[in-house]
Design brief:
The complex is a heterodimer. Chain A has 10 helices and 14 strands. In chain A, helix 3 crosses helix 4. Chain A is elongated, with a radius of gyration of 24 Å. In chain A, 44% of the residues are buried. Chain B has 2 domains: 266 residues, no CATH class; 97 residues, Periplasmic binding protein-like II (D-Maltodextrin-Binding Protein, domain 2, 3-Layer(aba) Sandwich), CATH 3.40.190. A 4-stranded mixed sheet of chain B has the order 2-1-3-4, with helices on both faces. The chains are: A alpha/beta, B mainly alpha.
Chain lengths: 308, 394
């Protein structure tokens, strides 16, 4: 297990992390969401030892991460970084060696990963001569070249075209299948929803939601009832007790029901206006969950979702 | 594939140093600058040889009896370091012809008479003085002899040097060249270190590096790697200089030459450790190569000041300025070698300067390491020294 446990961090009076904690099982992918400045990068930097936490620790296999354990982490920083004038192959070999591989093994691993990510014929080129997409691949190769036990990637998908996104996603899924826990942050929530076993939403330095995407969906908050009643007058649902109208466009209404309100009362009220062509609970997308979670300052403990 | 093994500090530092060396050895600018330095050095020595052989010889024609004037002119010439060859000439016409043909540099007509005349093509104050002195000397001797004064009674002055070194002048010149090379290499390699630090910051690769090592390991590897190159370069220059000087016969005392070169190389090691650390720390405060000039200027000025004090010390090695600055850490590598070469510095003085320098290096590395660690991950804009120190604690 990769455990982030009660991380606190302040810069002066500015509290960046306020008790961030989550767990990633080996072989699972954890999507880390949050608005800009929510503290995602700081959390990851703490795991890599680049920033010292005021309190809390990150554990891998039950032991707090130390320099030796960190060398087993593959890392992709948000600010991409490679030596611009160094050749691709040599650069990958160098990073593999910094992670503890001996010269021969490092060279082999560098060759392997360059080949795997379609950079085989660019090994002798300086990184600065590569296109941005290819530089991004080198960056990923630098994170994977040392056969890491843990992957921590800060915004790995940003700046990639759809093909690049797919090949990166494939590479990450493969690492997962090999039993590597993968943590990545992203603003592309559809991607997170598609790839991740579990998701954490960070807002103002707190985990406002975490769990599997299913768990988050099942939570009462954010669930909406969609009713399409073409003949219904404007404001027809406002009189039903325990119902809040989120939006109404012509006969298409989105309703939020207070706890304990029976959806059948709503249906009856709708039928009184005439025909009802659509009546269903709408599963919130991660985007909506995210908006709602980020908007709500109250932290919600992980996995507290209650099915309606 | 073998399992990755844990890395010790020394292994990491070696890896970083190895990368620095490999990168520089492939850098065209570095190769070219190294070759230029060596070519210039050989050029300077060749110039010395040419200039030396050119000015040391002079042909003076003498019309009439040269038996007394000839040796007198040669003796005068020797006193000012000119090898004079006497060419006997028939008459004034022959003298004019010889001067015109540049067969001789000058011709003396009527040297023993009342109105001696020196014929020259271009005026040459050295030759004029030499000939004047010789003519006057001969004339005075003649008059004294005529007056019956016994010239054998003139005592000869015995010369005994109080300095321990027999030829300090030459050693000082060698030390000056050495200090010049040392100054150039300190600036060059200081710049390399600074540019390397900023390159890692501006390309953000530093974040990946620091995920695998401590800031001081990165700093140490960088400074050591470039230091090995710098040392190799100054040793190559020293060896070429010594071999060349001996081959061209520019120096008289090889032992002194070698000891001076060795002391310059040792001072380079101390100077480099000091300046490379200061440059690296200063560079860590900025994120762009364009901003580098601003933070390096103060340190560069100290180096320039040290260089000029060193030049001044060559002329006056026991002046207060030279004595004091030869202890000041940062200045001492540029001043002390000159004083040592001049034989003005006692062993304890050199030892004191070395100890002070070592203390300064320890302080810079310690304090600088903290600034470096605090400033490295601040990849936007310029970091203030105090912020960096505070950030390291955070």
């Amino acid at each position: 297990m990769l455990e982030f446990d009660g991380l606190y961090k302040s810069y002066g009076a500015n509290r960046v992390l306020d008790g961030v904690g989550f767990t990633v099982a080996p072989g699972s992918m954890f999507g880390f969401c949050g608005a800009n400045g929510a503290g995602k990068t700081t959390t990851m930097r703490i795991a890599l030892g680049l920033v010292r936490a005021d309190a809390g620790e990150v554990r891998w296999r039950g032991a707090a991460l130390d320099a030796a354990a960190r060398r087993r982490i593959g890392y992709m920083p948000e600010e991409r970084g490679l030596y611009p004038k160094m050749r691709v192959g040599e650069q990958l070999t160098y990073f593999a060696r910094l992670h503890g591989m001996d010269g021969a093994a490092a060279a082999r691993a560098a060759e392997h990963w360059a080949e795997r990510l379609g950079l085989g014929d660019r090994r002798k080129d300086a990184v600065e001569k590569l296109s941005l997409g290819n530089q991004q691949r080198v960056q990923l190769a630098a994170a994977l070249v040392s056969r890491p036990e843990v992957l921590i990637l800060d915004e790995p998908f940003s700046g990639l075209d759809p093909v690049g996104v797919d090949s990166l996603a494939e590479a990450l899924l493969e690492q997962c299948r090999d039993g590597v826990p993968v943590v990545f942050s992203s603003h592309q929530l559809d991607l997170v929803e598609r790839l991740c076993d579990s998701v954490g939403i960070l807002a103002r330095g707190r985990m406002v939601a975490s769990g599997t995407v299913e768990e988050l969906r099942r939570r009462e908050a954010g669930r909406l009832l969609r009713v399409v009643a073409p003949e219904a007058p404007q404001g027809w649902a406002a009189t039903v007790p325990g119902v809040r109208v989120v939006s109404q466009q012509a006969g298409d209404t989105l309703l939020e029901l207070a706890a304990g309100t029976d959806d059948q009362t709503v249906l009856a009220a709708a039928l009184r206006t005439g025909r009802v062509t659509h009546f269903a609970w709408r599963e919130p997308t991660l985007v909506e969950l995210f908006r709602e979670a980020v908007a709500d300052p109250a932290p919600v403990p992980a996995g507290e979702g209650v099915a309606a | 594939m073998s399992e990755p093994r844990p890395l010790g500090s020394s292994a990491l530092v070696r890896l970083v140093a190895g990368r620095e060396i490999a990168t520089r050895l492939r850098d065209k600018n570095f190769i070219i600058s190294s070759i230029v330095i060596i070519v210039v050095l050989i050029g300077v020595m060749a110039f010395q040889v040419v200039v030396g052989s050119g000015s040391d010889e002079s042909r003076v024609g003498v019309v009439g009896d040269a038996s007394e004037l000839g040796p007198a002119i040669q003796a005068q010439g020797e006193a000012v370091g000119v090898d004079v060859t006497i060419v006997p000439l028939e008459d004034e016409a022959a003298a004019r012809q010889a001067v015109d043909d540049e067969d001789v540099d000058g011709a003396l007509v009527g040297g023993t008479g009342a109105a001696p005349e020196l014929l020259v093509k271009d005026r040459d104050s050295t030759m004029e003085a030499v000939v004047n002195g010789a003519v006057a000397g001969v004339a005075v001797a003649q008059q004294l002899a005529d007056a019956g004064v016994d010239l054998t009674a003139v005592p000869e002055v015995a010369v005994s040097s109080l300095e321990s070194g027999d030829d300090d002048g030459e050693r000082v010149v060698v030390a000056l060249i050495g200090v010049g090379v040392l100054y150039g290499l300190l600036i060059l390699f200081g710049q390399f270190v600074a540019q390397g630090v900023v390159e890692e910051k501006s390309s953000r690769v530093v974040e990946l590096l620091l995920a695998t090592m401590r800031p001081w390991q990165l700093l140490a590897g960088k400074i050591l790697g470039l230091g090995v190159l710098g040392l190799a370069q100054i040793v190559v220059i020293g060896v070429i200089g010594v071999v060349g000087a001996l081959a061209f016969d520019v120096v008289d005392v090889p032992g002194d030459l070698i000891s001076t070169v060795v002391s310059v190389v040792l001072w380079f090691v101390l100077g480099y450790a000091f300046y490379a650390s200061v440059f690296a720390v200063a560079a860590s405060l900025v994120s762009r190569q364009e901003d580098l000039g601003t933070v390096l200027t103060p340190t560069t000025l100290v180096l320039v000041a040290g260089f000029f004090v060193g030049l001044q010390a060559a002329g006056d090695p026991d002046s207060t300025l030279a004595s004091v600055t030869s202890y000041v850490p940062g200045l001492s590598p540029l001043v002390m070698p000159v004083r040592q070469a001049a034989g003005e510095a006692a062993a304890w003085e050199v030892a004191l300067a070395v100890v002070l320098m070592l203390v300064a290096i320890a302080l810079v590395v310690r304090l600088g390491g903290r600034v470096y660690a605090g400033a490295l991950l601040r990849t936007s804009g310029k970091t203030k020294l105090r912020e960096a120190l505070r950030a390291e604690r955070a």
